[in-house]
């Protein structure tokens, strides 16, 4: 989506969900449901490069921005993913400003970076809109850096200061484990870390984001200044629904 980055930076709340299953069906359902954005997960998800293409095609009909999480900072992977035309990219465990500069160089087209551009790929309308894409790509791509470690937290202000980083996205499970804390946003020490990240984002004109487990956490993070929030995942929702139905049948059988 051409304006996804601008919408994400300006919205009071940019609400999304996680897509772990590599399924074009759940991607389409997310678009129909009306999410502002979804995260297509190539780090811990089940899908591959071909699944990514089908998920992006399924979302094309809806005003839902597709952000793709890659496994690490890899220029080749960035190029392959961005050639398919997502609205944004998320990079796990960014720990230093140097890493942030490296990832920005990999995703930006010259003269602002080192990413190559091809004339016949999906992101440029298979060549029909190549000149327009070339002119607008650097401004339109949303870039999220995940803060998931003690080192990343220590360097969060320097990471936030890097031009091109739009979202500081907390990985609450990994960050809490590395800090030796509970991931409860009301736990004082973890809350202090969350406030530090949100403050760094605000001071540098960026957005703070995270993945939450329930509506209560969404409210807690919003109150802390987080505006780029994902609630749950397709895999989690399927697990919850199937588990609830199975438990119902178990109860029904016992009562019968």
CATH class term: Alpha Beta
Can you tell me the overall shape?
Answer: globular
CA distance, first residue to last residue = 53 Å
Can you tell me the CATH superfamily? Phosphoenolpyruvate-binding domains
User: How many domains?
Assistant: 1
- Count all strands and give the number: 8
Low-confidence regions? none
CATH-scheme architecture: Alpha-Beta Barrel
Characterise this structure.
This protein is of the alpha/beta class. The protein has one domain (4-255): Phosphoenolpyruvate-binding domains (TIM Barrel, Alpha-Beta Barrel). The chain is 48% helix and 17% strand. An eight-stranded parallel β-barrel has the order 1-2-3-4-5-6-7-8, surrounded by eight helices. It is globular. The model has no long low-confidence stretch (mean pLDDT 96).
Task: Name the features.
single chain; TIM Barrel; alpha/beta; 256 residues; 12 helices
Summarize the structure.
This protein has 256 residues and is an alpha/beta fold. It is built from twelve helices and eight strands. The protein has a single domain, classed as TIM Barrel (Alpha-Beta Barrel), CATH 3.20.20.
